[in-house]
Write a structure and sequence with these properties.
- The structure is a homodimer.
- The first copy, chain A, is α/β, with parallel strands linked by helices.
- Helices cover about 35% and strands about 25% of the residues of chain A.
- In chain A, strands 7, 8, 9, 10, 11, 12, 13, 14, 15 and 16 form a 10-stranded mixed sheet that branches. Chain A has a 6-stranded parallel sheet with strand order 3-2-1-4-5-6, sandwiched between helices.
- In chain A, a hairpin with a 3-residue loop joins strand 11 and strand 12.
Chain lengths: ~400, ~400
C-alpha cells in the first residue's frame, strides 16, 4: 500500500479522491498496490464530509510523515504551490500536479530536482486535462524530430468560438453564456486573452525540444477581437476559426505563437468543437498524430493526475527521464514568423491591396457590406505589418494556419 | 551504446534503419545512449546496399551475441517470428515488434516470459501504425475503468470507404484503385474481410481489461457487401459508414465486434478519412479521448517500433508492467450484442416492417428506387435476426454505432 497526500480539496482535489475511491480495484491492479489518501491539505474544514478526518492545515505534517511517498498538488497558482512542491521533492517525495502555471514557470527546475533526488515530478494534467499528451510526448514520440505542435488548448474559448460559429452569436453574448454555464470565470482574461493556452504550448514545446521555453517570449493574442463578421468570411471560405497554440521548427529556428487562426475544413483540428481540446503533433517520421479529449473538468483532470500517481507508484525508486533541460530556448522573433493572413478592408481599396499584396482573390461574405476580404501569400509578420500600414481602409487580420 | 538486431529487411525493417540513422541525434538524447544496428537478419542479400555488411542469414549468430540487448521483429506472420521472439526473450534480450498476428495470438504468453526474464516485449506498432495507443493504454489511462474502445483500425478499408463515399464509386472500382496505389494487396482478404481490424481490437481489449481476448471469438464482418446504395442512405441520414472494431463493457459482460457501421456526422470518428486510423477510448472518469494518425506506412510504423526500442533502452534491467494476463476473457455471445440497425427492404413491406420493428421512420435516399430504409430501436442481434427472418423483402442491414 502506498500513502499519498492531496494538496487542495477544490474541484480537482475532490475529483482525485473520487477517482481513487471509485476505481480502486482497477487502479490497484494497474499500480501493483493499493493507493490510499492519508492527508488532504486545505485551509478549510469539511465537517460532515468523510474527508474531514484526513484534513490537515499544516503542510509540515505531510512533509514529516515518512509514510507519504507521493504528493498530489492541485492548488493552482505559483505560490505556495512552488514552495510546497520543491520541499516535497527535496525530502524525496514524488509529486503529481495539474498546475500549468507552476510547470510552465518552474518545470525544468523541478524536473532537475526530482532527477537529483531520484523521485518523480509528473504533470500530465497540466495540458489538455484528461488527454494523454505529456506522457506520449515524453515516452512515445521519441523516435521523431518534432516539426510542429499545434493545439486547441483551452476549452472555454473553444466553446465560445464554436457558439459564435454555429449560433452566429457575438462575443459578449457567448462570453456571458459561457460564464452562466460555469465554463468561463467572472474574470475570464486567462482564457480569452490566450494566457492559459500560452502556458500550455510553452510546456509542450519545452518537452518536445528539451529546453526551457519561457511563455513570456511567446506572442499571444486572445479571441476578444473576433467578431460575427469574421465567422461570415470563414464560412464563405469553408474554414473555421480556432484559438491555436502552435510551435514549429523552421530553418531559422523555433517559432511559437498563440492566436485565433483560420483553419481549413479538412484540417484535423477543424471538427474539434465545444469544450474539447486536441493537440496535433507532426513528426518527421510518423507524420501527423492527434490527441483529442476533454481539456478540463473535475473527473477528466483528476483521471490524468491519478494516472501520474500510478506511474509514480510503478517507478518508485527510479526517475522517469525527460529531456526538458533548464537552458533557455530562444524563439525566433515574432516579426519573423511566417504565415498567410486573412485581411478585411473597406471597399474601394482593392487596387491598393493588389498593389501591396499582389494577385489576391477578393472575397465577399453573405450579409457583410461595405468591405471585402482576401488572403495573402505567406510572408513574415514584419513584412505584413509594413504592407498593412500602407493599406488605408484596413479593418482586421487573422492568421491562417 | 546499445546494439540491436533487426529481423526482416522489408518495408518496416528498412524504415527502422532509416529512422535510427536520420534521427540519430534526437534518439540518442531521448534514450540516453546511442542505438546502433549491428545485424539485420534476412534471407536475401543486398549487394551494393550499405546494409549488406550487417546482413546475417543465421538467427543463431544474433542470439549468441551478448552485445545484442534488443531485437526488432518486423517479419510479420506467426512463424518463424514466434519462435525467434520466444528464443530472444528466453536468453534475456528485449523485443520490439510490429507483428499484430503474433501479438494477438501469443501476446500474453510473451509478456509473461519477458516479465520472468526481466526484459521487455513491446508492440506499439502492432496497432495503429505510428499512433501512440498501446503505451497510452498501458501507462496513461490507468486511473479509469475503460467502458469502450472503438477504432478505425485498418487504413486500406478506410481509404476504400472514403472513396466510395466521396466519389460515389462502387466496391470493385475502389478496390482496384487501392491495389494500384499499393494500399491494398493482391489478396486483400486480411483487410477487406476485417481480419486485420479484428486482431487489433483483440490486442487493445486484452490490454484494457487485463485478460486474453482470442480474436477467433470476435464476430467479424468485412466491407465486401457495402454498396454505393448504402452510402446514398448514409448521406440521406447525414451519417458515414466506417469499418469499426469495437469492444464495450456492459452489465452482461464484455462485447466485441468488427463490422462496417453507420456513425453520425458529429461522432469523433466521422471525419477520420483516407488511410488515417483513429481509436476512441471511453473511460469512466476521463470521458472520450481519441488518438489519430497514420495507421500504416513505412516510416510511421518504423517510428513506433523505434519508440519501443528507446523505451527498452531506458528500461534496461526493469520490466515494464502491463496487466495483460493469459487467462481467457470470455466475450458475451454475438447474438446478445445490442445495437440499433439500419435496414434496407423492398417497397411494399413497410407495414410488415412496422409490425415487426414498431414505430420506425421510413427513409428514402436520392437516386434509389424500389426500396426504403429504416433504423431500428436498440435490440440484440438475436432479436434482430429473428425479426429480420420474418421480413420478406429484406435487402441488407448495417450496424449503427
Amino acid at each position: 500500500m502506498v500513502n499519498i497526500a492531496v494538496l487542495g480539496y477544490g474541484t480537482v482535489g475532490s475529483g482525485v479522491v473520487e477517482v481513487l475511491t471509485t476505481n480502486r480495484e482497477t487502479i490497484t491492479k494497474r499500480a501493483g498496490e493499493a493507493i490510499d489518501v492519508k492527508y488532504v491539505l486545505d485551509l478549510r474544514d469539511f465537517p460532515g464530509d468523510p474527508i474531514q478526518e484526513k484534513i490537515v492545515h499544516d503542510y509540515q505534517v505531510i512533509l514529516d510523515d515518512p509514510e507519504i511517498k507521493i504528493i498530489v498538488e492541485v492548488m493552482g497558482g505559483i505560490e505556495p504551490a512552488y514552495t510546497f512542491v520543491k520541499k516535497a521533492l527535496q525530502v524525496g517525495k514524488s509529486v503529481s500536479t495539474s498546475n500549468k502555471e507552476l510547470v510552465a514557470k518552474h518545470g525544468a527546475e523541478l524536473l532537475a530536482l526530482a532527477n537529483q533526488k531520484n523521485v518523480n515530478f509528473l504533470f500530465e494534467a497540466s495540458v489538455g486535462g484528461g488527454i494523454p499528451i505529456i506522457r506520449p510526448l515524453n515516452q512515445s514520440l521519441t523516435a521523431d524530430e518534432i516539426d510542429e505542435i499545434t493545439g486547441i488548448l483551452n476549452g472555454t474559448t473553444n466553446y465560445m468560438l464554436t457558439k459564435m460559429d454555429t449560433a452566429g452569436a457575438d462575443y459578449d453574448t457567448v462570453l456571458k453564456e459561457a460564464q452562466d454555464r460555469g465554463y468561463a470565470e467572472r474574470h475570464p482574461e486567462a482564457d480569452v486573452e490566450g494566457y492559459d493556452a500560452c502556458r500550455k504550448i510553452a510546456i509542450l514545446t519545452s518537452l518536445a525540444y528539451g529546453m526551457q521555453v519561457d511563455y513570456e517570449d511567446i506572442h499571444t493574442e486572445g479571441i476578444t477581437h473576433i467578431t460575427e463578421t469574421d465567422f461570415k468570411y470563414a464560412k464563405a471560405m469553408n474554414m473555421g476559426i480556432k484559438l491555436l497554440g502552435t510551435s514549429r521548427r523552421e530553418e531559422g529556428g523555433l517559432f511559437a505563437l498563440v492566436a485565433p487562426m483560420m483553419i481549413a475544413h479538412d484540417h484535423p483540428l477543424y471538427s474539434v468543437n465545444d469544450v474539447f481540446n486536441a493537440i496535433l503533433v507532426k513528426g518527421n517520421a510518423l507524420g501527423d498524430v492527434m490527441f483529442y479529449g476533454k481539456g478540463a473538468g473535475k473527473l477528466p483532470t483528476a483521471s490524468a493526475v491519478v494516472s501520474d500517481v500510478v506511474d509514480e507508484v510503478k517507478h518508485m525508486g527510479t526517475h522517469i527521464m525527460t529531456i526538458w533541460q533548464p537552458q533557455k530556448l530562444h524563439l525566433v522573433e515574432y516579426t519573423l514568423y511566417k504565415s498567410r493572413f486573412f485581411v478585411r478592408a473597406k471597399n474601394g481599396t482593392e487596387d491598393k491591396a493588389r498593389a501591396l499584396f499582389g494577385d489576391i482573390a477578393i472575397c465577399h461574405a453573405e450579409g457583410v457590406d461595405g468591405e471585402y476580404g482576401f488572403v495573402t501569400e505567406p510572408m513574415t509578420v514584419g513584412d505584413f505589418e509594413e504592407k498593412k500600414s500602407q493599406l488605408d481602409g484596413f479593418i482586421a487580420r487573422i492568421f491562417m494556419n
